[in-house]
Amino acid sequence: MSAAPGRWWRHHPMSARLGAALMLLLLVAALVGRLWTPYDPNTPGVGDPFLAPGARHWFGTDQAGADVFSMTLAATATDVWLTVVAVALAFAIGGVLGAVAGYWGGWTDWLIMRVTEVLQSFPALLLAMLLVAALGNGLVNVIVVVAFVGLPGYLRLIRAEVKARRGWEFADAAILAGNSGAGVLARHLVPNSLTPLVSYAAVNAAWVAIVVSSLGFIGVGIEPGSPEWGSMIAGGRDFPDEYWISLFPGLGILLLSTAFYLVGDGIVDRDER
Amino acid sequence: MTEPGKPLLSVTGLRTEFTVRSRGSRRTLRAVDGVDLELHAGRTSAVVGESGSGKSTLARSILRLVEPTAGTVLVDGRPLSAFRRRRDIYKDIQMVFQDPRSSLDPRQRVREILDEPMRLHLRRSPADRARRIRELLAAVELDEAILERRPAALSGGQRQRVGIARALAVEPKVVILDEPTASLDASTRGVVLDLLARLQRENDLAYLLISHDLHTVRRIAHTVAVMYLGRVIETGPVAEVLRHPAHPYTQALIDAAPVAAHGGHHRTIRLTGEIPSPFDRNPGCVLASRCPLAEASCTTRQPSLAEFRPDHFAACPVTHRQPR
Predict the structure, then answer these.
(1) Could you list the mean pLDDT of each consecutive 10-residue stretch along chain A, which spans 273 residues?
(2) Which CATH code, of 2.60.120.260, 1.10.3720.10, 3.65.10.10, 1.10.580.10, is assigned to A5-272?
(3) Model-level ipTM above the cut of 0.85
(4) In sequence order, which residues have a C-beta less than 8 Å from that of residue A76 and are 6 or more positions away?
(5) Is B90–A169 a contact, with Cβ atoms under 8 angstroms apart?
(6) Cross-chain CB nearest to B120 (options A172, A173, A177)
(7) Do A173 and B105 touch (CB under 8 A)?
(8) What is the pTM of this model?
(9) What order do you get walking across the sheet with B9-22 strand by strand?
(10) Which among A122, A256, B133, B312 is least surrounded, fewest beta carbons within 10 Å?
């Protein structure tokens, strides 16, 4: 993973390269959206209401006359950021809990796995909606809930990896080298178990991007009024003729989700070759 | 042959049991059943036996990689409780693993593999450790160019040399060799055995060689213990035991080995049947059901080791009684 970009490129299939390129494009868009937009995304009336896409307003304007391109661009950072942080959080916490459960087994494992099973017995999207509705809207709440709901996948995956490698001779050799149990886990077992987790994280991020915007769509996302693709789609759903209000943020979600999915799929492909 | 001095490792009455649950019932598997063993500086003791004889579990029990059920292990005269932390015993006793492909972390470079035990056990300065790494490489006849490689980029022989160097990094007194050449091809095997013998002379190491290969045993071991179903059934100096095996099982083991391992004169023994289940043992001799010499008393009383010739012990009253 520490390899130079050129090496990464050569060692991955075309789908992963396309995904990486899309991801780069989205990152640039997120950065640009933070620094500059053609119009203020939060100000209505920068143009007439319901203007179709054209030279002055590339993605048209909404019912209040706000510039859809500026809003879409400004929302990119929100959706990308939410997705990345939620995935990182689920990866880290699920990774640690799963590794601990897989290595020590016994009642720790039993407890962690039973809680995980209870968590997984709810449909993930529904659980996320209920939790955010209960906790209240907000950036932090959305991140925590989405990470929490996504956690079992990471946990189960690394648990299985660690459990399988625990009996290998290099785990015994690590104990003889002076490692404590935690040392064996952190220095040897976890690093050797990360590759499948990384590909899973990429595929899972595609799903997280959709959940994040779904929460926005039904109005239990981040603070109402802040730019977010899901809530933008929701804002355009009463105007079926003015398709551009919903179409462009929808394309954003599609691109983000596709980018992650392609990269994840590409990593899986590479590992199976 | 008498063993000089105090033993570096002394094992008494070591027993390791596993509880196996199958179809709701709990059964106890006695993998190591009361083994006594002594290792001395500069000497090699071999433990031989078929797979399933408990020799690997014996090694892992001595190192506490599995927890023994009973028995004592003294390292240089000190019981485990005399060590501040359990892992401090690995400063004195180390192991060379059977398969270096699975015992070397595939993500570590050779430099880190050799550095880790010194960093964790000895807390030496980085400069000290770098100097010691060069010494170790020279000792196992490896080029410094391999320091930045990972195990996958090494040959089988190179990997096992790295495994040996890692075991020696903390300057242990006792090294357990778990089938050290089983994963190597025939041409590399001899070179690695010679290397191990030289390292033993230079560092006055005590080796415990775990092997099923009598050839290896004959080549580097001084004494040998033959294990069958968790028990030592014969023990003595290597040349003596291989030339005049006293226990029918040892005789059968030698007969089954390629001709080159022979050299002595004894009757040919052929065992019948399979190794019996390690569960549900009968009270008598562990070999009774397969032994052509078995008598009625063999199935009722467990024979213990008795001196057959000087320093040569065997647990078989039948051959003990017979004139040779």
Answers:
(1) 72 88 94 90 86 88 90 92 94 96 94 94 90 89 92 95 90 95 94 89 91 89 81 89 92 93 83 63
(2) 1.10.3720.10
(3) yes
(4) A26, A29, A30, A33, A252
(5) no
(6) A177
(7) yes
(8) 0.84
(9) B25-39, B9-22, B70-75, B78-79
(10) A122
